[in-house]
Amino acid sequence: MTADVPDPRTDPPAGGSEAEVLLGFLEFHRTIFRMKTAGLTAAQRDQRLAPSGITLGGMAKHLAYVEDWWTTQVFAGRDAPEPWASADWDADPDWDWHSAADDGPAAVEALLDAAVARSRQVVADALAGPDGLDAPAARPGRLEGLRLRWIVVHLVEEYCRHNGHADLVRESIDGQVGE
Question: Is 147 helix (H, G, I), strand (E, B) or coil?
């Protein structure tokens, strides 16, 4: 962050319920990712840091997919929303990463916004229920006994890991560094 731009982050709560702390960290890291991708052109969002093939645009679209996969599909048991439902995953298992360059920054940001909104709603609905973070996933797959708690922690982990990647890519683009 530059000195003339206000910091949009809200620190996660130091106390509170387990759900409040976990969701506080998730929102904190969602905001950090947005900070790392803010103000870039389409060409900059598609720039790679050799030898990796990752881009900030691809990372944003991947995080949208991760949000939808874990909350909408695995936890809530719903069908994949678009664009995931019609993606040819067999032709390109990393379609989420590779197709972002074809979409443009505004479309990818809108996709991430929509996925995050769906995730927030699914989690809020589950937390309002009797099981809270212990609510079982509708489609646990190979993770027998999968609960909402694991999914929220995994989302925090995804953002943390990719925020580290985003640090390196962003610094290589314009020298911007930060949390």
Answer: strand
Phi-psi bin for 70: left (phi > 0), alpha (psi -120 to 50), beta?
alpha
Digits of tens for pLDDT over the chain (179 positions)? 444 556 778 889 899 999 999 999 999 999 999 999 999 999 999 999 889 999 999 999 999 999 999 999 999 999 999 999 999 999 999 999 999 999 999 999 999 999 999 999 999 999 999 999 999 999 999 999 999 999 999 999 999 999 999 999 999 999 988 76
Residues 6+ apart with CB under 8 A from 178: 1, 35, 167
Q: What sign results for the dihedral spanned by CA atoms 90, 82, 104, 33?
A: negative
Q: What are phi and psi of 87, to 5 degrees?
A: -70, 145
Supply the angle between the helices 105-127 and 56-67 in degrees, to the nearest 10.
30
Rounded Cα distance, 131 and 42, in Å: 43
- Answer whether 96's CB lies under 8 Å from 64's CB: yes
Give Cα 46 distance to the centre of its chain: 18
* Distance from C-alpha of 3 to C-alpha of 178, rounded to nearest angstrom: 11
